[in-house]
Amino acid sequence: FFSPQVLLLAWAEDLECVPGFQQKVFYIEKPFEFTEDRLVLNLKFDDCKGNNKLTFQVSNPDFTVEGNGSLVALKNASEVGRALFVHARSEHAEDTAQIFIVGANEKHGALKEILKLEGNAGIPRQKRAILATPILIPENQRPPFPRQVGKVIRSEGTEGAKFRLSGKGVDQDPKGIFRINEITGDVSVTRTLDREAIANYELEVEVTDLSGKTIDGPVRLDIAVIDQNDNRPMFKEGPYVGHVMEGSPTGTTVMRMTAFDADDVSTDNALLRYNILKQTPTKPSPNMFYIDPEKGDIVTVVSPVLLDRETMESPKYELVIEAKDMGGLDVGLTGTATATILIDDKNDHPPEFTKKEFQATVKEGVTGVIVNLTVGDRDDPVTGAWRAVYTIINGNPGQSFEIHTNPQTNEGMLSVVKPLDYEISAFHTLLIKVENEDPLIPDIAYGPSSTATVQITVEDVNEGPVFHPNPMTVTKQENIPIGSVVLTVNATDPDTLQHQTIRYSVHKDPAGWLEINPTNGTIGTTAVLDRESPYVQDNVYTALFLAIDSGNPPATGTGTLHITLEDVNDNVPSLYPTLAKVCDDAKDLRVVVLGASDKDLHPNTDPFKFELSKQSGPEKLWSINKLNNTHAQVILLQNLKKANYNIPISVTDSGKPPLTNNTELKLQVCTCKKSKMDCSATDALHISLTLVLLSLLSLLCKSF
């Protein structure tokens, strides 16, 4: 039902005998199936010397070539690849023929490619004097070399003409692979070829005269390297790890394994088939998975019941995968890789408390973890299907308890976060539920074992007395008389079931101003309260007091007292600066700007009143002018001689009654030359206005 399409690359009547296949390239239409023992086509090989010891080898083991050159199928086959290669060898020659298997719509294009038709289809190219038929050379040939692989023929003989070969593999890198006998046209290969390195060589043949001048050509000579099965399949994309959810349906795809073969993909040399060589572990079934031999897809083949992570010996399976070329035949080369398949957990087991009731004991007034609640969960640890989430669903109206999950143990850590009071309640009962972070699968629900009760017993302890209120605040005026009552404190004992007495004492009194009656808690003053004291911050003085019960051992409570001190006008204003300097020839007689400050608070401070004490003598030497509420300026009324002068000044605040500070400003009159002030001699003069006035009075008295 099919016929070979024969291409003659030269006309026999024009040629002498050429050793090798008389036709090297065939195209046949792909049949539905190659039938066992049925002729495919006839091959003709002639070594021109009788074909002694002629043998044939076919690239596909499903075919053979009989002694008469008949290519037949050894068995029924539908998939044989895109090409077959037949290698023939005799005592005197060897050659390779190539059979391309094409579809009906591919034939025309393929024939045109081989015929090298130009112009309109069906018109052959013009015959040339040089005939260079394509040469096919199997890779990995063994020595000896050089080995004749083909022949170039010139139909027109010219005396002294020589063949010359050029191109990649001859005079271009890689150099020296091919050479031609310049007289006979025999083409030889000098070494073993590797198709995976270079699959095709495009050379040029030309004919030259004795002088080297080209007289014919160049003509293209194609050399194709025929693939041999010399490369094992390789898995290059590892590591190979796949995941499948437990309980998945039979036939669930887990992952795909893909190997690479460097041989010719159009031949069976690179036609791969996959197989599982080994599965570890072998339980619950030695055949948990199947691999598609052509695609490499690994799928589950056991029922969902067996794919149960919690009942498996291990949730990790390792498969040794084999890839074999030659379509998986025994003669094929193999490569292996390990596929790791992890059975992923789904939340098909709810967490369950290890017991229905837990006990805990805690002292009143104490916080922290009081009990760890234990649960069991058969799902995969450290996953959301295993991690527990605890909730208090009853018995915690005051939010005194909290529960958190221990991330390492999955236990529920129940804590007291608000201190418990034995006198209010000695027992607490909590109802707690546990769930997973991830939701359960639809057909699984939380049961009674996912809730538990916690019975908590509160132990009584001797608690310290409590001040009411705490802190305590009171406002007092500073400078109140010693012995004044500040406040009477009140402390009670929370241990209402115990009959105890309370004593009071001073715990911290930084300034030592206070005392407390140990029996009734009355606080009084032992010193003057001073608002301006360094122990007072922001007008507030703070002291601490203790209330001690009569328990064994006694318990203590601490109370804080804040006394806000009201200001009274008990501080005179101060003046600054107290020293000023001026040149004896100064043109600007404004000596200094004085400022005043007061430790008291407004209205016992500014505005301040600045005054000079009464000046005696024939003329006034200075004056003082108020600038604002807190500053005034001293002005000389004339230049003075170099000396020290003490100027009496009074400054008065605005308190009721007002307070006045009488002080002196020391004024140094200095000699100034070239912007340098010399006050050295003034210290020896020590002249003050008061002394000058006294001396004048003494002289006046003597004159009378």
From TrEMBL:
GO biological process: adherens junction organization; calcium-dependent cell-cell adhesion via plasma membrane cell adhesion molecules; cell migration; cell morphogenesis; cell-cell adhesion mediated by cadherin; cell-cell junction assembly; homophilic cell adhesion via plasma membrane adhesion molecules
Cellular localisation: Cell membrane; Cytoplasm
PROSITE patterns documented for this protein: CADHERIN_1 (PS00232), CADHERIN_2 (PS50268)
Pfam families: Cadherin (PF00028), Cadherin_pro (PF08758)
Domain of life: Eukaryota
Membrane topology: Lipid-anchor; GPI-anchor
Presence of keyword GTP-binding: no
SMART domains per record: CA, Cadherin_pro
GO cellular component annotations of the record: adherens junction; catenin complex; cell surface; cytoplasm; side of membrane
KW Signal (keyword) present: yes
Single GO MF annotation: cadherin binding
Function: Cadherins are calcium-dependent cell adhesion proteins. They preferentially interact with themselves in a homophilic manner in connecting cells; cadherins may thus contribute to the sorting of heterogeneous cell types. May act as a negative regulator of neural cell growth.
Protein name: Cadherin-13
Underlying gene: Cdh13
